[in-house]
Each structure stands twice: as structure tokens, then as C-alpha cells.
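Subject: complex prediction, re-run

Hi both,

The earlier run crashed halfway through, so I resubmitted it with identical inputs.
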Amino acid sequence: MDDPIRLLLILIPALPLAAAVLIGLLGPRVLRQQSHWLAIAAVLASFLCSLLLMRELSFLQRAAGAGGEVALGIGYEEVRRLWTWTDVADAYQQPRTPPGESRESLVGGGSRDFRIDIVLRADSLTCMMLVMVTLIATLVAIYSAGYMHGDPGYWRFFAYFGLFVFSMTMLVSVSNFVLLYVFWEAVGLCSYLLIGFWYQKPAAAAAGKKAFLVNRVGDFGFALGVFLIWTTYGTLNFHDSLRGGELEPARIQQAVAAERAGEVVPAEQEPVAGVFGPLRLADNELRPAGQPRTSAMISLAICLLLLLGACGKSAQFPLHVWLPDAMEGPTPVSALIHAATMVTAGIYMIARCTPLFLVSPDAQLVVSVVGGFTALLAALIALTQYDLKRVLAYSTVSQLGYMFLALGVGSLAGVTAGMFHLFTHAFFKALLFLGAGSVMHAMGNVIDMRRFGGLRRVMPVTYITFAVGCLALAGVFPLAGFWSKDAVLGAVHDKVHELEPHDSDSHGPAPHGPAPHGPAPHDSSPHGSAEGGGTQAVERPESSADDDVTPVFGLSNLLRGQIFHWLYLLGLMTSFLTAFYTFRAFYLTFHGPELIPPEAGRHAHESPASMTVPLGILAVCSALVGLLLDRSYLDGTNSFANWLLWTPSLGFPAAMRTTLPGEFHLSVAGWSTLMALGGIGLSSYLYLGSRHEIHGIRQFFDLAWVSGWSDVESFARMRQWRVARWVRECSAAVGLEWLLRLVVGALLLVVLVLSAPLLLLYYVSPYKLSYHRFYLDELYELVLVRPLRGLARLCYGIDRWLIDGTVNFVGRVPRQIGDVMRSLQMGLVPFYALAMVLGLLILLAVQLLG
Amino acid sequence: MNELALLQNYLLVGGLLFAIGLAGFLVRRNMIVMFLSAEIMLQGISVSLVAWGRYHNDWGGQMLVVFIIAVAACEAAIALALVLMLAKQTGRLDIVLWQDLREEGQPAYVDREVPEEREEDQVWPTLTPAGIEPEVDPEEELHRSRV
Amino acid sequence: MYLSGAAHIGQAVAGLWPELAGGGGLSAVAGSGLLAALPDWRVLVQSPTTWGLVCGAVALVLMLPRGSAVARVLGGVVGLVALGLLAAGQPLLSDWLAQGLFWILAGVTVLSAAAAVAMRSAVYAAVWFAMSLLGTGSLFLLQGASFLGVATVVVYAGAIVVTFLFVIMLAQPEGHATYDRLTWGWYAKPVSVLAAALMVAVLTTALPGIRQIDALAALGESGAVERSAGVLHPSHMARFGAELFSRELVSVEVAGTLLLVALVGAIAIMIQGRRQAQAEESAR
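This time it finished cleanly. Structure:
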């Protein structure tokens, strides 16, 4: 094939799929314990293809940028059509001025086809996701070969694995909401299969079910969002095309020109502007500028529904409960799916839909608030968990919250920061999970941190790599986490300043932030201008997104600024907590007296090379990836952000807002480093020394002293006090003992009444809240699961007793009749004769009288 | 003679005989009495047939009665042989003993209570003594079947 | 033709179901449906036949097993009353002598039959049956069927009843047995008797319908001449024999074969039974 991009786009998902199919077919008979070779080879090839694709794309982008043809705000994309999936003619009657489009439409009115082509796209965002997913998947596949060794379902694991990689690569490379939904569900299915991989274990089966069901809630929202996008924009494609399916940009331009000129074009030649296609983005057709509130409502509704879907997949606050339970699956799965790749699908989707979110600042606010709140909540829960993998799971939820926080900021800095955090997080979280898996492997599947400790001498490689991962997660200076977390906090910080009221106009230069207008900082650098040469190519008629969109919530900029300020503080707080719980887990596992559970047996040694090598690679990546990609501290260049800038959806905010990435905030960095070091220090102090302090602190947060106060016996002991005795004797001497008794009794009553809330507090003490995950699972159990189960019982009862009963009754009637008839068959000859005579009598009567 | 009245009277008598035989057949449990009842029913039929034959001036009725008598003789031969067989197996002529054809699980019919035989019912047919009284061993007298 | 026949015989039938014999009853019979065909209840109540049947049923119930000797005697009395009622409901024969003779014979026949059915002892039952057969034979003679009258007595009373008695002696040497004093269920007696009574009721209700058949034959009582040349021929036996061996020859042969087969069958059954008994004995 002479089109390398097309070939690569097909190969990347096709190879893992082929591997999955082959393993599925040959695994149980032929491959057996050798199944991993096929999977590793396919995923590795897929990774190499991804790299090649990236290279090809960067050439193309440079060429386009050099030619100055493509505006930055529109980005650069390559789309390739494979075949047409469905084509329903005239499925949608497009109004001349749809609510989401400001002008007399550029993309024709009249009817639209419900046409879904299998179109794969290559743009920066997709490439980045492809590289990340396939790289992590390769390493995890190698690791799994060691970890899953000897498992009876070895081949099954790798078949699922291949299927998952296929689904995920397709998820990020399709260019249509329906297909996105399809593969969204496909990764959900793979997740379900892999969580419940050890389906004989009831907990694993239940966890798989839970993940699937919780995701259904989110997917329901996502589906509704997709429907709403269809009715609002009349298309589900990301890209522009002609109605006949033609994708060639030149032809599209031609058709648009023809249409604008008022020519009558054949139906096949009508341009269809994709939701994130250059046509719509270039003319900023997405925003409901100057539109009535309803359109703002629609934008908000679309965004919130998409957010619901993202919350399900990326485990954000109300729907996060499935992720910690998903740790029942094999550890490589936890690393691959539930830390590095699948859970980022929600982030990817939000990032992809950035243009949609940009037109609804309220939705952005919601995204940020959800993210920030989840980050803090999960971090608080992670503080007290004893299950190593669960700590990491909550940490994942927390970090995903960070990403949402950044995405909600909405500026290019925010979005790229979110994606950057996603990218780095994939490395160090995969590293941590694989490290935990290594520990688990050595400890005979024991994962409770109270049962092992001091493993640093037993497992030196794991120890070192895990330490790197922890440092990266905590965000210590040169490691990856530092840069990305910093970018997130910096973006939020900028947003706060941007929203602060200014004297002159709403978009004057902020004290810290970059100038929203004028030449962006990175433009001054030669590198930046080379890449983002088209930045100013499109002149924005509007100045700021916030001015011309109607906020539905009616929050003032001031209030929103304050909210973002709190979110910023929340983020800092979370970074402190992150450092603390990460190192708590680290110290509990690797430091302290050596403690090895009996389950470990002779396994308590370092893991095999197939497991340690991926750990090493990931550790190196975690350490360096931030440093290499984010050089904003040097020259303000963030290669990662500059690369992402070429994505159509992501270039859009830059074009709209011109807040460009790469600003390095020393103050933010300082604060976050301070927080991280503080957290590390505190946990070092508490967990490296004697365990007494930590016990005391736990007692304090558990409000143990409250139980003392609410204890009646402590009052009884008060009678022994000398003063009490003296008072009693005195009053007895005076003869007023009854008065004393009355007073004391009344006092006791008052104290008891007052201590009731304290007692209540004791049962929801901060420690208990955290340990019991804020009782969210219990709450869901009470509010959702129980009533649903009751309803299901009711339905079952109706089905069982009413419907089955009716059917059974109908079935039983002949039987009952038969039983009655049976009782007539009593074997008595005279009875038969009598029956015969009676029958004869009837016949006779009919015959003679009738 | 009033032929129609004659016919009707005979038919009534035939019907009555038939009905009495029927009731006896259905109510009695002694197989031989049941046969007697069946014969009575046949008598009823015969009476009706003869009456019809006369009324219609047709020999057919009487012919049929001849055959009925023949068939009754056959029936008596076969049935009595069978009854004898059955009676030999159980020692009794009770039709209720033969209820093997009942449905599985159906309880067998058993007499709830057997009435006491009263003294006044113990009436035996007696034959007028004639000839020389045979020598009978007292032992044999004790065990002899009572007829 | 049908109507003329009906009118012709209607007077003779009038005594039986008075209203029914009139126009109304006939139309009711002609009307469709079983219920519509049932006579009016007033007619039923006024008719002695109804009460005769009720009395007869009561008599049977009294006489049949689980009744005492007193009840049997009482039953006999009620049976006599029933017979009287029935006779009262029947149309008159030519004169009182014939009427009286017929009903005496009929009474003997019917009451003996009832006694045969009701007796506890099978021996008594057989004796009463023989009595009933004598009555039947007499009734045949009254009908002019002299051969049948004699044959009945000879064959039945002479052969079959004797066979019965033999079998009774063989099979029931103990005499009285409990099952002779019992029926086989609480409902057996009432339902059976009711069925029997209903059957007679149905048959008698249908009697007037005879006219329809008879109207075609158009014989009735006016056919004395034809009868004297037919079934009432003076040389009865010769005609009977000629009829039997000409028109019914094949039937006679079949009946003879049947008798032979029955004879063989009876012997076969007995031999089989004897073998069985021997096998049981040897097994013992």
C-alpha cells in the first residue's frame, strides 16, 4: 500500500486483534504456556507502528506548518476511510440555523444521512494515546508472561489482553462518536473479562459485575450525550467529509467554496462538517454565541452527559466505586487497564471533546469540581487502606481527578497539562502496580501491608523501582510526576488569575499568568514558532470564550475564580496527601522489621527477569519522561504540549484563548514541592520510627477519647475522687444529701444528652470515614442496591407467582382434571358398570326425548 | 284385544324387569347374583321383543328371543366357569376383591364396617328329610360346609 | 299420514300421560331440546305412573342389601303398591279378565325378579329367579308365543338355573357371606336405583312416541286378520319352525356354533384353572 498512514492505522489495532483471535483459537490446544509470545510480538509490533505513525505524522505536520496552510486552531489530522458501516439516507432534517451554530450554516441545510464510515484518524492526540497504550501494553505483556506463569487460564489471559489492546487502540483512533461508543463498550467488556479473570473467586466475579454495572450508568449518560450531539449538530463524525463519504481535504474545500458561492451541488458533493472538523472549528461554529439560553442549556447538557460517561470509565466521584474493587483481577490487568490505559479513556474523551466543553463554562466548572473533589476524596481514603493495591487504586482515582481538574480549566494549558499528567501517570502508575504485583507474587498473593514488611533486602530491584515510582507519584523534583502535576496546578492557578476581575478589561494580563492576547511566550522561541506557525492565522472575532457564552448557572467570574482558587488549594492539599500515603505504603512494604507471611513459602525472593525488566524500563521512563518532554523551565518549551497543539480539538482553545502552554510557575512548583516533601517527611517520621506515634495519631483521628467520655463507668469512677467524697460527706453532715443526689443526677442527664452527638461522631470519626471509604459503598448499597434488589425481587415475584402461576395454572388444569378422573379409575367393576349405565341413560334420554 | 295397550303393558313390564335387573347388577357384590341380575335384564328384553313381534305381526321378535336364550346359555357356561375360577383363587364370590385395574395410587376399596349378622337373618333353607339318614361322623359334622 | 296415525292411536294412549297424549304434549315432544321435551311437571305429578315408579324405587331401596328382613317385606308391600299404581296408569286391555290375568302374571314376574335381586342367599335368589322365569314364560304364553313360553321354562329354569345352583353349591359352600349383605359404596344403592328408575321413566315417557313408527306400519289393533295369519297362526309351532329354519337358518347355525364354542371355552377355562391349581399345589 502506498499510503503508509493508512497501513499503520490499520496495523496498529489489527495486530493485537489477530493475536487475540489466534490465541483464542490455538491457545487451549497448541500454544498453551507459550501463548505470550504471540501477544508480546503483536503488541510490540503495534508499538513500533505507533512510533512510525508518529514520525510520519510529525513530518506531515511540519510540512503543513511550514506551508502555512493549516491554522493552529484547526490543527492537522489525517483521516482514512476503510469501509461504510451504515448509511441511512435523509435520517436527519437539518434546520437552517441549528441551535449550536451561529451563522447561516456553512454546511448546507436540508437533510443529513445517518452515515457511519469506519474512519480511522491520525492526529497528535491519537498518536500520543497510541504510543502510550501500546508501550505500556508491551511492557505489561512481558511482565504478565512471568506473573501469570502456570496459571490454568494462561492463554485466555493473553487472548483477552490482545482483545483489550485492540479495543483501546481503536477507541483512540476512530473518528466517530458511535464507533467511539462501540469501543468504549468493548474496553468495558475486556475490563469485565479481565477483572473477573479468576471467575471461580466470588470476590472477583462480583468485582467484575460491579465494574460492568457502574460503567453502565456512565455509558447510559454517554449514549444520551451522543444522541444529543446527533440532534444538535446533525453529524457524529469528528472529521469533515462530503456526503458521499469523500475525505480528501481539497475536495471538501472545493465543495465548501462551491456551496458558499451559491452553486447547486449534487447531494453527493454536499459538505458535512464534523463535530471537531476544521470546517466547524475554523468558523467557531460550535459555540452558541448570542443564542438564547436553550442552546446554552443544550451545550451544558451535552457536556454533562459526556462527563457522566467519562466519570464512569475514569472512575470519578459518584461512579468511582468500581475501580478499587477491580483490584481483584490479576495485577498486570490492574496495571494496564485500571491505572494506565482504559481509565484514561474518559480523559481522552473529554480532551477530544474540548471544543464542546469550551462553549459551556459551567460544564467546565463541573468537570473541575468533580475532578478536584474526587482527587481529595480518594486521597483521603487512600490514607488508611492496608491493601497495597487498593492504596494504588485510590491513588489512581485521585490522579484521574487531577486530570479532570486540569481538563476543566479549559485553556490549552489545562488540557495539555491533563493529557501530560495522563501520559506520565501511565508510566509511574503502571510501575507502581507492577511493583505491587511483584511483591504480591513473592508474598504468595498476600497483599495486606500489615502482614509483610521490610522487603527491601528481599526484593532489591522491586524496592528501587518502586521507590522511583513513589517519588514520581509524589511529584518530587526531577521525576515525571513533578512536571505534570505542576502543569496541572499551574493551569488551575492561571485560571484563577484569569478569572480575577481586572480594572481595564476582562482579558488584561494577569499578574502571574501569561498574556491571553498578543504573541504567546512560546512564539518567541524559535522552536515554538516553527511548530505553531499558524497560531495567529485565524483572527478571532471574539476575544474570550467566557464573554459570549451564556452561563446557565449564572455564576459570576468572581465566584468561579474563587471556586478555582479553592480547587487549587485542594490540589495542593491532595499533593501533600498523595506524598504521604504513597510513602506510607512504601515504608510499610519495604521498611521496618522484615516480615514475611507464611503463604510466601519459598517464593519470598526477587521476581524473575521477565518481571523486573519491564519494571526497570518503566522506572527509567518515569524518571525521565517529564524532564525530557517538559523543558518549560529552560526555554518555556513543552514538547509534549506543542505536539498536542496540532490536534484539531486541542488547538482550538489555543486559537480561541491564545493562552499557550509551557509557562513554568516557580511559585506553584515551589508550593507543590513543599507539599510533597512535607508529606514524605511526615510519613518518614511516622513510619520509619517507632510505630507508637502513628498509633496515637490514629487513636486521635478515630476519636477514641470520645468513647471514654461516653462511658458510664468513667462517671462511676468519679465517685472515688477525693473532692467528690468530701462534698458528699459534708452534705451528709448537713443533711442535704438528697439535694446533692438530685443535682448530680441532673448533671449526669445533661452530660449524657450532650455526649450523644459526640458518640455519634465517634462512629463517623475521620479515621473510620477514611477507612470505610466514606461509607460510599454502604450508601450505594442502601440507596441503590437494596431498593433495586427489592424491585428485582418484586419483579421476580410477579414473574414467579403471577405470570408463572398463571401459566402453571393453565398447565395444571388438565392435570387436575386428570387427577379427578384418576380417582374415578378405582378398579371396581360395579362402579364401571354404573358409570356406563349413567352414560347410557344420558344417551337414551337424548335419543328418545330430544 | 287392544293391541296397543297390550304392547304398552308388555313394554312396561319388560322395562321394569330390565330396571330391576340393572339395579341388582349394580348393587349386588356376589358374582352369581350379578349374573342372575343380568339374566333378569335379558328377560326384560325378551318380553319387550315378543311384544313388539306380536304388535308388528313379525316373527323376528320371537326369533331374537330364541337366540337370546341360546346366548344366555353360552354366557352362563363361560361366565360360570370363569366365576368358578375366580372363586377358587380367593375362595369368595365377591366382585370387589377384583379391583386390580385401578389407577396407580388410588386407594383400594375396603369395607369400612361389616354389619353384625343378626340372629333372625340366620335362616337356612331346609330340605325335607327323605330316605335313610346317613351315618355322619360328629367330627365331620363340625367341619362340614353349611349349605 | 303422520297426523292421522297420531289421531288414530292418540285415544288409546290417552290413559298413559293424559296431557301428553293431547295436542300440547305432542308439540312439546316435537319441540327441540331435551328440556323442552320433558313433560310439564303438573302432568308428571298427576300421573300414577310417576308415583308408581317412585314407589318402585323406594321398594327396591328397601329390599336391596343392607336391608333387614322386615325392610324386605315392607319393600315387597311397597312394590305391590307400586305395581298397582303402574297398572292404574296403563291403558285397559280388552276386558277386566284379561287385565287381571295379565297384571297377576306381571306382578308375579316383577316381584319375583325383585326378590331374586334382593335375597341375601344366592340359593334363594336363584329360586326366586326361577319363579320369575315361570312368570315370564306365562307372559309369553299370554302373548301367543307358546314355543318361547315353554322354551324359557325348559331352558332357563330347567338348565341354566340348575347350573347356577350347582355353581353356588360349588363356589360358596359357606352359605351367607358378608358381601351378600353389603354394597360397594355409600352411593351405590341410591344411584343405581335412581338410574334404573330414570331409565324406566325415560322409556315410558317415550312410549307415546311409538305411534310415529306404528303409523307407518298402520297395523294397530285393526290387524287381527293379519296376525292370525302371522304370529298368531293356529299352527304356531309349525310356522315358528318353518320361519326359524328358512329365514333364520344361518342364524341358527351361528347360534349352534356359538354354543359349541362356549362349550369348548368353558372346558378350556376349567382345564386351565385345574392346571394352575396343580402348579400351585406342586409349588407348595
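The first strand of chain A starts at residue 78 and ends at 94.

- K.
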